[in-house]
Specification:
With 411 residues, this protein is α/β, with parallel strands linked by helices. Helix content is 34%, strand content 27%. It has 18 helices and 16 strands. The protein has a nine-stranded mixed sheet, with helices on both faces. The protein has a seven-stranded mixed sheet with strand order 11-12-10-13-16-15-14. Helix 3 crosses helix 5 and helix 8 packs parallel to helix 9. The N and C termini lie far apart (52 Å).
């Protein structure tokens, strides 16, 4: 049961007041695959439909179909504004958060928003509280919870800082600070987000066994560890090799910061590489001036988190250069956490060499790694179009030679 404080803060809504009219429901169902912008231009054709609300629901459903497919498949879900849908977590990253929390008696999400993260994590706790200061979002989340099978969660409409002050001890507190300023512009520093978790960190740790904070992937990890006390883990989460978020776990007991590099594919399978913050400095790796039969590129999470020498040692590969972040071996490594390529040709930058490299090739996917030219400059020099099945990497080897690698990607 909730204490009197929480009961006084809950904004209840009747399901009857949230139910849309049959006309509205029929309209949304009939047009939910339509282009929202074109549909808006036809508003005068539907005088009996609240077009603003209908367009919001259609746009929300279309976004949920890609971002939170389980919700899109659930009848009756109400969707918030475009901005709230844009800011909410994807189902894939929310499920990952639920996997890394331990569960227990009580959890609180202090910045619930549309409720994707809080709803996913709520299943692992006996009681969950979702705090959100926007009244419209509170009404929407409270309406959606039973439809999603979540019956152990309450919605509280209050500012995170105010709710935290009177919060009883929790097993978990989760925060996803808003990353926009008063003018709607995006911000990435901890101090510029709302709420400022650096200012609240002592109180957060007093109120919870574990604090999990979602931050921008643009933040410098070393700065995060320096600004927040008691960081036990940093999870760098990518989806299909695109870095999406940093998850910082504050703990009461810690020996070293554990770095967890996660790449989730479209089916929800996770590729994980982890190390502690001291390992990289204590590890030696082999740098090579010759390219083997295979080339390997770490996934986006590893590129963000580092651990490059640990990666080379763990998988027995040579690193092309301290700053190139490409690896090579004569053996194929099926479980390497990143992209794998079969080497077709290696050449220098001379005209004769590049002519031989590009023989019969009219297009390729170009990348530069530790190379004194941009992709645009290199493309202009090589005179080839973007695309196709072949890859060309321009990079630097351990002896400082600049080379072009013609590669075939291994699926």
């Amino acid at each position: 049961m909730l204490c009197g404080f929480w009961k006084s803060c809950i904004y209840g809504i009747s399901l009857r007041s949230q139910c849309r009219t049959m006309v509205m429901d029929d309209f949304i169902r009939e047009h939910r695959l339509d282009d929202v912008r074109e549909l808006a231009l036809q508003a005068q054709r539907y005088p009996n439909v609240d077009m603003k609300e209908a367009l919001q629901q259609i746009d929300g459903w279309q976004r949920a179909r890609r971002k939170v497919p389980t919700w899109a498949e659930t009848d009756g879900i109400v969707y918030p504004t475009h901005l709230s849908m844009e800011q909410c977590s994807s189902e894939l990253t929310a499920r990952y958060k639920a996997e890394i929390v331990e569960g227990g008696r009580r959890m609180t999400d202090l910045t619930a928003g549309f409720g994707v993260d809080g709803t996913m994590m709520a299943h692992k706790y006996e009681q969950a509280t979702l705090v959100e200061q926007n009244e419209d979002l509170c009404r929407i989340v409270r309406h959606n919870l039973p439809l999603l099978g979540v019956r152990n969660a309450e919605v509280v409409c209050r500012k995170a800082e105010d709710a935290l002050r009177e919060l009883p001890l929790q097993d978990l507190i989760f925060l996803d600070p808003a990353r926009r300023d008063l003018h709607g512009g995006k911000v990435v520093s901890i101090a510029d987000c709302t709420p400022d978790v650096a200012m609240l960190q002592e109180e957060l740790r007093e109120k919870a066994e574990t604090v999990l904070i979602k931050l921008s992937p643009m933040l410098d990890i070393k700065s995060v560890v320096r600004d927040l006390k008691g960081v036990g883990e940093v999870h760098v989460v990518s989806v299909e090799n695109e870095c999406k978020e940093l998850l910082v776990k504050l703990c009461h007991t810690m020996e070293a910061v554990r770095m967890v590099c996660v790449n989730i594919d479209g089916e929800g399978k996770s590729e994980i590489f982890d190390f502690t913050d001291g390992m990289e400095a204590d590890t030696n790796c082999r740098y090579v001036a010759e390219v083997g039969r295979f080339v390997y590129e770490p996934n986006a999470s590893i590129m963000k988190a580092g651990g490059f020498k640990v990666l080379a040692q763990r998988y027995g590969v040579g690193k092309l250069h301290p700053n190139s972040h490409l690896y090579t071996a004569d053996d194929e490594i099926a479980d390497f956490p990143g992209r794998r390529f079969r080497v077709k040709k290696v050449s220098g930058l001379g005209k004769t060499e590049t002519k031989g490299l590009l023989e019969g090739l009219t297009q390729a996917n170009l990348s530069v790694r530790n190379f004194p030219m941009s992709v645009a400059e290199l493309r202009k020099r090589l005179k080839i179009r973007e695309g196709g099945d072949r890859y060309i990497y321009a990079t630097t080897l351990a002896d400082n030679r600049k080379v072009l690698l013609l590669l075939d990607r291994i699926k």
